[in-house]
Amino acid sequence: MFENLVPAYREYAGRESLGKDDFDWALHPGGEAIIEGVKDTMALTEHQLRASREIYRTRGNSSSPTVLIVLDKLRTMGRGSDHVVATSFGPGLAIEMVMLRRCRGDEGEY
Q1: 34, 40, 89, 99: which has the fewest Cβ within 10 Å?
Q2: Helix or strand (DSSP H, E) at 99
Q3: What DSSP assignment string belongs to 15-27?
Q4: CATH code of the region 2-9+22-101
């Protein structure tokens, strides 16, 4: 899904060489297996998944709003990447994915 979305996002962002390493990832942490599966499949770093891990550790799976809770946590964890992938997983392994660009103030804050 990421590979299908990233070409249009590159055009939107005005960046020709934007790839998975240029994004922070906000996963719906439905369980450790989901986080590890995405990490391994996409070859992501722990830093890219820091907010997902923190929310899973402190709050667990909060059902539908979990990815929004992860996005809020990511917002408060410092500067991070200018680009974010938010992904939710549903029954039967339905997947929803969106690519977001952070809004920054004059001093780089959001």
Answers
A1: 40
A2: strand 94-101
A3: -TT--GGGEEEEE
A4: 3.40.47.10
AA letter at 47: H
Backbone angles phi, psi at 90, to 5 degrees: -125, -175
Answer yes or no: are the C-beta atoms of 21 and 38 closer than 8 Å. no
Q: What residues are paired with 100 via a beta bridge?
A: 84
pTM equals 0.84
Q: Element (H or E) spanning 93, and its range?
A: none
Render pLDDT for 89-103 as a digit per residue (tens, 0 to 9): 777 778 889 999 988
> Mind listing the pLDDT tens digit for each residue in 79-90?
889 999 999 877
Q: Extract the residue ranges of the chain whose pLDDT is less than 50.
A: 110
